[in-house]
Each structure stands twice: as C-alpha cells, then as structure tokens.
Amino acid sequence: MSEHPLVGIVMGSKSDYEVLLPAIEILRALEIPCEARVLSAHRTPDQLFDYVGTARERGLRVLIAGAGGAAHLAGVMAAKTLLPVLGVPVVATPLNGLDSLLSMVQMPKGIPVATLAIGKPGAANAALFAAAILALNDPALYERLGAWRAARAQDVLDQVLPDQA
Ligand code: RP5
Fold first, then answer.
1. pTM of the predicted model, to two decimals?
2. 25-45: per-residue pLDDT in tens?
3. Helix axis angle, 120-135 relative to 139-157, nearest 10°?
4. Ligand 1 atom, smallest distance to 16 CA
C-alpha cells in the first residue's frame, strides 16, 4: 500500500477481503498506488462519509467498493463523491451474490455505480478498469496495462492440452 494512493478500495467487512484481494494484487502489479479500508454503509456510516468526502482532496482518483448482501456500500459512496465508483458484488448470503449484484447495478438514474462481475473476477476487472481510467492521463501506465494484457494473451497461446503434451 502506498502513502499516496490513487485507488481506494473499500470493503464492507473484513470477510470480503479474500474476494477483493485480486484487485489489490493487480493494482500492485501495475504499480498503481492503492489503499484498502473496511468501512460499512450501515455499521460505520459516519466514518464512510468522512473517507469518501475527503477522498479526492487526498489524491484518490478511483474508488472500488466491494460488499455483499444488500450492498448499498457502492451506491452510498457514489452519492458522496464525483469520483468514479466501481462496484464489486460479493457472495455473502444464500442468494449467492445476486442480491449484491442487483443492489449495485440497479442504481437509480443519476448516481452511477460501474458494476463488475460477482466475486474475484469482478474484483480483478475493477482493478483493470481503474487502471484504464488512470491510464487516460498516464502514458507509462498505458504501456504497463498494454503489456499486462499482452502477457495474458500469451498465457492463452502457451496453454497445452493434455493430449498435446
Ligand atoms: C456486508 O455484509 C459485507 O460487505 C459482507 O459482504 C457481508 C457480511 O459481513 P460480515 O457479517 O461477514 O461482517 O455488509
């Protein structure tokens, strides 16, 4: 984690950490300074408001919100900032993340939450989407993101099936 983060990752509970970990790992791989916090829209609303309300002046440029259940975290954050908020639905209830997905993707008109897939794939893509946003004004990051994408393509091309080994 950096002292001057550009991306702030907020999760509603420590129990969400494993799901959000791919986002942290990809941001690190792309050398994007980030920070992660546990803050809840319903358990710590005042502290969440403080965090989001000061995010821009502290240098943050993109926020990632991961939460499960009735995942109002992302929408509440989006309501308190003009920074882009990327939502990652988390599996936390018997509804298997569909509750969280719909809570984020069905935000009423006017307060957008850019919602990714449920779980770890969504967390990884949130980091990549944050990178794409930041790369608009950072040519070096654009190059790193392009190299990351090319490496993933090479991973696919290098795959060998059992009957080809
Ligand atoms: C949400 O409730 C959190 O984001 C988490 O996904 C879910 C369960 O939280 P814990 O009961 O594990 O703290 O607010």
1. 0.96
2. 999 999 999 999 999 999 999
3. 140
4. 6
